Amino acid sequence: MNGGQFLITENIKQFLYGLETLSSLCFSPLMMAVWSIGLFFHLSIFSAYFLATDLGTILHRKLMHFVYLP
Fold it and tell me: Which spans are transmembrane here (predicted)?
């Protein structure tokens, strides 16, 4: 095997090792926590937007009327 072929195979090995490391990072418990926090953040933004719309305000008032019934 000459030097050029050796470099190519080494580069492929390094690339595959990098892919393996990246995939193990993405599915580690820490990254799972980051993904879930991001999902929760986006859902809370969506619900805040929903409450800011007219339909959301009407539903919220109806709900609060039942919750805080005098």
Answer: 32-52
- pTM passes above 0.70: no
5: its two tokens: 């072929």
Residue 42 binned pLDDT confidence (cut-offs 50, 70, 90): confident
Please answer whether residues 60 and 51 qualify as being in contact, where contact means their C-beta atoms are separated by less than 8 angstroms. Answer: yes
SS3 content of the chain, % helix, strand, coil (to 5): 90, 0, 10
Residue whose tokens read 């859902």: 43
Cβ neighbours, 10 Å, residue 59: 13
Distance of alpha carbon 37 from alpha carbon 34, whole angstroms: 5
